[in-house]
Specification:
The chain is α+β, with helices and mostly antiparallel strands and 156 residues long. The protein has five helices and six strands, in the order E-E-E-E-E-H-H-E-H-H-H. The longest helix has 18 residues.
């Protein structure tokens, strides 16, 4: 670790502790050259996988695009912003925990459909109709039948 004051590479760790949130390590350092002290933080660096589109092109994962897709399907539906944030968080967690460096866009679409099915059945049908390119009424009926046949969660 270089000293930010004199650029010397000879520094010594004086104190190490976890941050209050326990998401980083705080290290207090002392430069052996100029004797000045400074603090560094060590954090886990997690990178979202690169998205591979249907045409083979690659692009960075964009959480804003994910949010806009969800919000479009949920337009005028009674779903809270907090529920949408939770869905986005779960999708991002699944992508991060996969450990993959690349993910096909279709997999993200499937994750979105799974979350929409949990949040709002109408939004799920809206998204599925575009995502799966429904071309006739029968495909809508099949998607609706799939939802109707699902077991209902027990009442609380």
């Amino acid at each position: 670790m270089k000293c930010p004051f004199c650029q010397s590479e000879e520094t010594q760790v004086v104190d190490t502790r976890a941050t209050e949130e326990a998401d980083a390590i705080r290290r207090r350092r002392r430069c052996l050259q100029c004797e000045k002290r400074f603090t560094t933080y060590e954090r886990v660096e997690l990178a979202m996988p690169v998205v591979v589109k249907k045409n083979g092109s690659r692009t960075e994962f964009d959480p804003a695009k994910l949010r806009s897709s969800l919000m479009l399907a949920l337009r005028k539906r009674p779903v809270s912003a907090q529920a949408v944030d939770g869905a986005i968080h779960r999708i991002e967690e699944k992508l991060l925990s996969s450990g993959e460096r690349e993910v096909i866009s279709g997999h993200i679409g499937e994750l979105v459909m799974r979350e929409l099915k949990r949040l709002d059945k109408i939004a799920y049908i809206r998204f599925a109709s575009v995502y799966k390119s429904f071309e006739d009424i029968a495909e809508f009926q099949d998607a609706i039948a799939e939802i109707v046949q699902e077991p209902k969660p027990p009442a609380k």
